[in-house]
Write a structure and sequence with these properties.
alpha/beta, four-stranded parallel β-sheet, 4 strands, about 40% helix
Length: about 180
């Protein structure tokens, strides 16, 4: 955090994107508690600790002159999530149960909502974004979206975020997803 602060000087950090994540295809029969804990540590605790560590720099950016309302140009936390963590879509998504991954993303979504509630008065926007099913190591080559297409969409969404979308769960096209 100190190295980032030194690089940014007195500007603060206006955009923090938590994109780390690990998957697990564990089913009810194959699940073990250590795998569940490992996935939660990376997908839930990790992003929360990153926000905690960088909070002073986010607060500094949010206090910048001429910055009002909530936006990515002021100060924002973006948690890359997954629609697989949507409780509302759970029965409509055909993937295997993936208990650790799906439960961790649901928990990360709750963390995002809690952060949005806690940090809005400090001028910090918080949103969860589903990047789509993307051709990556995790998404595999079967995924329909390229990294470039997903990133272009996410950048467009980031530019449109405001007070009205803080605490939202959106996809890479800006569509609201059910929690």
């Amino acid at each position: 955090m100190q190295a980032v602060g030194n690089h940014l000087k007195d500007q603060g950090l206006n955009l923090l994107i938590n994109n780390a994540g690990i998957s697990s295809h564990a089913t009810l029969c194959s699940l073990d508690s250590q795998e569940m804990l490992d996935v939660f540590t990376t997908n839930v605790v990790g992003p929360l600790q990153v926000v905690k560590e960088f909070l002073p720099l986010l607060e500094q950016a949010a206090k910048g002159e001429g910055k009002e309302g909530l936006s990515c140009s002021r100060a924002a936390v973006i948690n890359i999530s997954s629609k697989l963590g949507s409780i509302g879509l759970c029965l409509h998504v055909p993937q295997a149960p993936m208990y650790p991954y799906r439960a961790s993303k649901a928990a990360q979504n709750m963390v995002t909502r809690c952060l949005a509630a806690e940090l809005q008065d400090k001028g910090i926007l918080c949103v969860a974004i589903h990047p789509g099913w993307v051709k990556t190591d995790m998404g595999t080559q079967e995924a329909p979206l390229t990294v470039e297409h997903s990133v272009r969409g996410i950048l467009t969404v980031l530019a449109s975020l405001s007070q009205d979308t803080s605490g939202a769960f959106l996809d890479w096209e800006g569509n609201s997803l059910p929690w």
